[in-house]
Amino acid sequence: MSVQTLEMEDAQLNPRGSAGNGTQRSIVTLIGQFSIENRYPAAFFIDVFSSVATERAVRNALARLVARGFLVSSRVGRSTWFGVSTAAKLRHERRLSHLLTFGSAPVEWDGTWTIVLFSVPEDERPLRNVLRRQLSTMGFSLLYDGAWVSPSDQAQEAREGLASLGVSAATVIRTDDATGVTSSGELALALRLDERRTSYERFLEDYQPVALQLAEGALAEAEAVTLRTELLEAWRLLADRDRLVPDLLLPADWPRAAARELFCRIYDGLAIAAQAQVQAAFERAAPGSGVTLEAFTTNNF
C-alpha cells in the first residue's frame, strides 16, 4: 500500500488542510447526530447550511467527501442523494460513541504504560508523518523523536498500525516501570497536562454563556442545528486533546467532569429544536418522503 493511499485513508473522516474543510467537517458532524443509515438529498444540506455556506461551497464539500470515501452518492429522479459509505460506517459509529460517552466515567489505570519505539529513515518522511498522525489519533503522546507513550493498553492496536504501514524497525512495550525508558518527569511533560487544562478552560468559558441562554429560553430555535454542530465539533477537539488520561495521573481539580456536564446540558437541551429544524429542512428538500429524523442525545450511548 502506498503512502499516498495511507494518507487518503487517514483523511477520510478527518477533513483538514484544504479549502472548504470547515463545511466538510460540519456535514460530517451533522450526519453524526442522526442515524448512520439515513440518506439525504443535496438540497437538504444546502438548506441546513444556508446561513453559513453558499450552495457552491456545500456542493463542493459533498463532492470532496465522496472523493475521500466517506460519502457515496446516487441519483433519485433528478436529485442527488448522499449516505455514509459502508467502509466508513463502523469507524464513524465508533467515533460518535466515543465522543458522546467521553468523560462519563472515571478512567481506571493499573499503572502500566504502552510505549512505541520506531525508526523511519529520513527519505521516508511522508511515511513517518502518517505514522505520527496515527499514533496521535490512537491517543499516544510524543515523548521524544521516535518514542511515543500512552497510559492505555493499546499495544495490539499499535502493532496493527505499524504493520499496516510496513514499519518493521519498531518495538511496542507494555511496562509498569516506564522510568526504565525515561524519567517520571519526562513522562509527565509528555502528557502536557497544562495544555489540556487550558483547552478545558476555553471550552467552559465559551459555552457557559450558551448554557445560560438555553436555560433562559433566549436561544432562537433557528440556531439549534448550527449551535449543536459547533458544540459537537468543539467537544471533538477537546476529546482529541485530552485522550482520557487516567484519573490517577490527574490533579483533583481536573475540569473534565465539569466540561462534560456542560456539554451534555447544551447538546441534549438543543436536541428537540435541532430535530424539528432538520426535519423541516428534509421535508422541504424531499417532500412526501415519509422519512422521520430522530436526533441522538448522550442517552443513546
Explain how this protein is built.
With 301 residues, the protein is of the alpha+beta class. The chain has three domains: 3-101, Arc Repressor Mutant, subunit A, CATH 1.10.10.10; 113-175, Alpha-Beta Plaits; 192-300. It contains twelve helices and seven strands. The strands form two sheets. A four-stranded antiparallel β-sheet has the order 5-6-4-7, sandwiched between helices. A three-stranded antiparallel β-sheet has the order 1-3-2. A hairpin with a 2-residue loop joins β5 and β6. α1 (3-11) packs parallel to α6. The model is unreliable at 1-20 (pLDDT under 50).
Can you lay out the helices and strands and say which pair or pack?
Layout: H1 3-11, H2 21-31, E1 39-41, H3 42-48, H4 55-68, E2 71-76, E3 79-84, H5 86-101, E4 113-118, H6 125-138, E5 141-144, E6 147-150, H7 155-165, E7 170-175, H8 184-191, H9 193-215, H10 224-242, H11 256-269, H12 271-285
Antiparallel strand pairs: 1-3, 2-3, 4-6, 4-7, 5-6
Helix pairs in contact: 1-6, 2-4, 2-10, 3-12, 6-7, 9-10, 9-11, 10-12
| End-to-end CA span | 35 Å
Radius of gyration: 21 Å
> Total strand count, please?
7
Helical percent range? Answer: 40-55%
Counted by DSSP, the helix tally is 12
Q: What is the averaged pLDDT score? A: 87
Assess the beta-strand content as a share of residues: 5-15%
Structural class: alpha+beta
In quaternary terms, these chains amount to: single chain
Strand order of the largest sheet: 5-6-4-7
Uncertain stretches: 1-20
- Total number of domains: 3
Largest sheet: 4 strands, antiparallel
Shape: globular
Order of helices and strands: HHEHHEEHEHEEHEHHHHH
